[in-house]
C-alpha cells in the first residue's frame, strides 16, 4: 500500500442516503452578487438593532461575566427561563421555569424532540407541506411520516394525531405555505391532542409577524384553557419559539415550552448535544427582553415586510400569473405559488431560474417523499421592493422556458 492508498473505510450512516441535493443547489448558488435570492427565510439585516445589541453584549460580559462566560445550566439561565414562562403565561395558563428549556435556536428544539420521541420507524404526523429544516433535523432518526393538511375540508384532527409519537405544525404563517390555521382547526387539533395523548408540537417562529388582522390564539394557550388550574402546565402542547425572526438569528436563542417531564427528557438530550446554549447570548436575550427590545423594533419590521409583501404580490400578479396561482399571506415571510398545470415541474424551474439569476425554493424539499413538484416558496423579507420586482420578472422568463420545453 503506498502512502496515498486508503484501506476501505466504514460506510457513512444509512440516513445520509435520504438527503436531497436541491437544498445544496440553492444554498450554494443563491449568493452571487447578481443573484436575486428569494429562496431563504432570512430577515433583512437592516432591522437588527445593532447599537443596542452591542451595548447589551458589552454589558453582559462586563457586568455579568458569570452568566455570560461560564457554562450555564443545561436547561438555560434560570432568569431567562422565568422570563419565557412569564411571557407565555396567561389567565388560563400558568407556566413556571420547569416548563422551559432554552435551546440553541429553534432548529435545536426540533433536533432534541426527534432524539427524545423518535426511535427508528417511529411515526411523526406532519403538517404538510412540512418545514424543510424539521425534515432535515429528524432525518437521522429514520422516522415514518403521516402527512396531514389542516386546511382540507375533510380534515379529521383525531385521525391525524392518533398513534403518532408527535404531530408537528406551524400554525402561524406556515413554512413553506405562509398560511394560517384558523381558530376552529386550532381548537380541533388541541382537543385531539388532549384526547389521543399525542404530543402536539407548535413551531412558532413567525407568530409576531402579523401584517393584517389580530393574532389568533396559540395552541398552547388553547390547551391551557382546557385545563385551568393545571400548575405548572402539564398538557400535550409543545411550544417552540426563537429570537431569530423577532430580533436576530445570529444570537441562536430559542425555547421549548412543555410539560415538565418532557422538559426533563429534552434536557437529557441537550446534555449530549451541546451541554448548554451560549451563556453570552442567553444573557443578551435576557437583557434584551428586560429592555423590551423585540417589542420596540417590531413596528419597523412589520412596516418594512408588509410593504415588501405587497410589492412581491403585485409583481407576481403582473409577471407570473400565466403559470402560477398564489394567495397574499396575512403575515410571515413567504408566498407559496402553485403551478396551474399539475405537470409543471418546479425542480426544473429552479435550474432555469438560477440561469436567469433568481433563486426560489421548489416544493419537493417540503415533501417527505420529495414528490410534490408543483409549487414554489418565495421569500419577500430579504430584498427591496425593486429587487423583488426584478426577481419576479426573471422568474417569469424561467417559467416560460420550462413551460415551452
Ligand atoms: C418553521 C420554522 N421552524 C424553525 C426554524 C428555525 O429557526 P432558528 O433555528 O433560526 O430559530 C425556522 C427558520 O426558518 C422555521 O421556518
From TrEMBL:
Keywords: Aminotransferase, Pyridoxal phosphate, Transferase. The keyword Transferase applies. GO terms for biological process: alpha-amino acid metabolic process. Residues 37-388 form the Aminotransferase class I/classII large domain. It comes from the Bacteria. Transmembrane segments: none annotated. One of its GO terms (molecular function) is transaminase activity. The keyword Methyltransferase does not apply. Its cofactor is pyridoxal 5'-phosphate. This is Aminotransferase.
